[in-house]
């Protein structure tokens, strides 16, 4: 047993500390990057026309959040009209289902305003979504089970 311990100590002495530290740093960096949803290859924002209600115009830009606090996601609204939006939905890697890179998909969604025209509702890919009445949060539920709350992180037509 003593020989085994001595052998381990000798082997550890032969491996430079900087190698272990660098590998730990790179591993941590890779882990944090793996969690991010991949960026889209191109985003083409279109400024809304004046006839589009202000609460719908507020959708333009990037919204981000984490499903269950773990799975990074975003919605990028490129263009809106009074009753539809062209958007990109991105989601981080999901190794449990074999997705190691994450993905994004483009959608055109129908926008439905509530009776008092404060909230906005839309659906895509088993996700039911709503923009809060104050325009600060998008809440979504996937397949009636998991949920997310997204906040706006980028507005292409202001200095946000």
What would you note in describing this structure?
- This protein has 160 residues and is of the alpha+beta class.
- The protein is built from three helices and nine strands; from the N terminus they run αααβββββββββ.
- Strands 4-3-2-1-9-8-7-6-5 form a nine-stranded antiparallel sheet.
- β7 (127-131) and β8 (137-142) form a beta hairpin.
- It starts with a helix and ends in a 6-residue tail after the last strand.
What fraction of residues sit in β-strands? 35-45%
- Work out the helicity level: 10-25%
Going across the biggest sheet, name each strand in turn: 4-3-2-1-9-8-7-6-5
Would you tell me the overall average pLDDT? 81
What pattern of helices and strands is seen along the backbone?
HHHEEEEEEEEE
Report the oligomer. single chain
Q: How would you describe the shape?
A: globular
- Unreliable stretches (pLDDT < 50, length at least 5) are 4-12, 17-34
Rg for CA atoms: 22 Å
Strand pairing plus helix content: what structural class? alpha+beta
Number of E-type strands: 9
Q: How far apart are the first and last residues' alpha carbons, in Å?
A: 63 Å
Main sheet properties: 9 strands, antiparallel
How many H/I helical runs?
3
């Amino acid at each position: 047993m003593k020989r085994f311990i001595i052998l381990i100590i000798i082997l550890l002495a032969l491996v430079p500390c900087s190698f272990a530290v660098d590998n730990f740093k790179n591993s941590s960096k890779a882990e944090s990057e793996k969690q991010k949803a991949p960026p889209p290859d191109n985003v083409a924002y279109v400024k809304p026309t004046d006839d589009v209600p202000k609460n719908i115009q507020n959708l333009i830009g990037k919204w981000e959040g984490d499903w269950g606090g773990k799975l990074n996601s975003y919605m990028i609204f490129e263009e809106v009209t009074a009753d539809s939006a062209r958007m990109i939905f991105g989601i981080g890697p999901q190794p449990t289902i074999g997705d190691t890179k994450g993905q994004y998909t483009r959608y055109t969604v129908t926008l439905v305003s509530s009776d008092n025209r404060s909230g906005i509702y839309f659906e895509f890919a088993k996700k039911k979504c709503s923009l809060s009445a104050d325009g600060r949060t998008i809440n979504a539920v996937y397949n009636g089970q998991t949920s997310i709350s997204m906040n706006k992180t980028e507005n292409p037509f202001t200095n946000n």
